[in-house]
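FIELD: query
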Amino acid sequence: MEQQPKRSTKSIVNANETAIYKLLVVGILVSIVGVYLRFAGDSMTLSIVSWAILFIGAFICCKAVFKILGS
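FIELD: result
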């Protein structure tokens, strides 16, 4: 029996878009900045700001992952 070649579906093409992976890299970099600031100082204000930056980065990463899964 001869195997049929797999055809690339629309979801695979959408999942391989470079814009999604650029968004994922931006989210990772924002999260790294948040983690660095978390341990850089010992003030309450810096701690709150760093947690906010970390959660923004995590939200960006989740958004990119759900775009990949949703396509």
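FIELD: remark
Residues 5 and 51 are 48 Å apart (CA to CA).
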